[in-house]
Amino acid sequence: MKGRPMQPASLYGQAMKKAVYKRVLLKLSGEALLGEKSFGIDMAVLEYIADEISMLVEIGVEIGIVIGGGNIYRGVAMTSHGIDRASGDNMGMLATVMNSIALQQTFERRGISVRILSAIEMMRVAEPFVRERAIKHLKAGRVVIFAGGTGNPYFTTDTAASLRALEINADVMLKATKVDGVYDKDPLVCQDAILFDRISYSEALARNLRVMDATAISLCRDNNLPLIVFNIAKGGNIRDVVCGENIGTIVGDET
């Protein structure tokens, strides 16, 4: 998300919208936190994301979040520098914990109740991931941030997001991006790129559209978990998606 994000939409002065999804899993990339920076975290982006999430809390949505660590460290990229893949991925999973703590602190300043559950045990900064505990927190109205990926190397945070969405019985997975949805080609490069309103899991895989990695999409397909890809940089989009408005691209079943 390059450039300063738009101001979040406000619920004040308009009728409170009603969510069509009760429980959601939001996937954020670590790179989304870069903002104007080339490394690390842009606090303006964190504040913006917290404002957007607060709108979901206001309308009673149960929210789980998985965030990547690419703004701090990318394990795959370091294999060319002599660090083996398993070690690099372990370092990348630790980067997701750092981003999760930053999100937690920003949410708490807004009075949002939040818990971090980590696949890598580090009791001083996060609770260990236990599925039943995560669901209990969600039912209590707390935002749950899932850190540490899957806890295993060779799996991306996209796959971790699909896995956690299924484990918490999410109604939908939301993939936040910097473009309006899924296109037939890169819209940042090709002006004639076509936006899909809806596409099947199999077509997304066959076209290699890189919506998420193949393992993540396959998990969604095999368990019939709908995925909505949308532009989080447009204020209010996440609330409107959860309220059933026609925003972004739905990746779903073959029909």
How would you portray this structure in words?
Helices cover 32% and strands 16% of the residues. It is α/β, with parallel strands linked by helices and 255 residues long. It has a single domain, classed as 3-Layer(aba) Sandwich (Carbamate kinase). Helix 1 packs across helix 2 and helix 4 (157-167) runs parallel beside helix 6 (214-222). The model is unreliable at 1-7 (pLDDT under 50).
Topology overview:
Layout: E1 23-28, H1 43-58, E2 62-67, H2 85-109, E3 114-118, E4 127-128, H3 131-139, E5 143-147, H4 157-167, E6 172-177, E7 198-200, H5 201-206, H6 214-222, E8 227-231, H7 237-242, E9 249-252
Parallel strand pairs: 1-2, 1-6, 2-5, 3-4, 3-5, 6-8, 7-9
Antiparallel strand pairs: 8-9
Largest pleated sheet? 9 strands, mixed
Strand proportion, as a percent range, falls in 15-25%
User: In order across it, which strands form the biggest sheet?
Assistant: 4-3-5-2-1-6-8-9-7
Strand/helix succession: EHEHEEHEHEEHHEHE
How far the N terminus sits from the C terminus, by CA atoms, comes to 33 Å
Q: Which stretches are poorly predicted, pLDDT < 50 over at least 5 residues?
A: 1-7
Kindly give the count of domains.
1
Rounded to an integer, what's the Rg over CA atoms? 17 Å
Task: Return the CATH topology.
Answer: Carbamate kinase
SS element count, helices:
7
What is the level 1 CATH name? Alpha Beta
Shape: globular
Class of secondary structure makeup:
alpha/beta
Mean pLDDT score:
92
Which architecture would the CATH scheme give at its second level? 3-Layer(aba) Sandwich
Number of strands: 9
